[in-house]
Please model this.
Amino acid sequence: MVGSSSAGGDLRTPQFNGTNYDFWAVKIETILIAFDLWEVIEVGIQSHKSPEVATGSGDEESEAEQTTLHASTTSREDKIKNAKALSLIQGALTDDLFPRIRNEKTTKGAWDILSREFRGDKKVRVVKLQAVREDFQYKRMAEGESLDGYLAKFFTTVNNLKSLGEDVSENRIVQKLLMSLSRRYKSIVSIIEETRDLDVLRAEEVIAYVKVYNKREDLHDERDKLTGTEKAFSSLKIRNNQAYSSHKGFQGRPSKKWQLQDRRGPNSLPNKNLNNYNNSSWNNTAWGSSQVSVKPKC
Model:
């Protein structure tokens, strides 16, 4: 921002660096209108011809002098207005852009130079307008896109249309906004279309309805998320309890091996040694010979 002195005190004019000319031009126009200086751009400085002083005596000479004085005063006021308006525009430009209007002595001339370079002539504006129209026509809100982010992009496109001379009615904005919202807002869009008159409905009202609905949906989503988290923790707790009970019951029961041994008694031999009772070599070794030699009878 650049400060400029004025009759009403310090005046802050928006700095222009070569981008967003349309926004800057609107701000400068408002400032110039507020200080009664816009006419030097809209109309320009009117050239005054010096009136012929009528020769005569008495009242005729006095009237001629008054006419000359009045014409001179008006011309001086125009010059002062032009200088004030031109100083505001010069002070609002960066050092890189100032040379473009350095040699221009009128505010209207400086304004026209900036407008042709950064806004474009009629043909360039037509091409830009077609591109912005197409962007506006096919603009849609993506699934999962934030409402505030989409509204910012939407109204940027609307402002671009207006700055290029497009007449964008309120009804056109409302209908496009309702049509371009994502499926998340299908319910509130249906309610608005069925209960409100779209011919008199303003975009600000639509935004208010949609934002309230979006806030409620966010609360529902948070509640569902919290409920799902609680269910997950509850399920995990039940599984842990079941696992603990199963482990505790397993520790309280003896193994099958020891159960089998208890049924046979503590002195029972392992199964693999039971079949060795019929083994004569084992019997001979352990208990001596259990067989009696019998001589055959002749």
Q: What stands out?
A: The two ends are 146 Å apart (CA to CA).
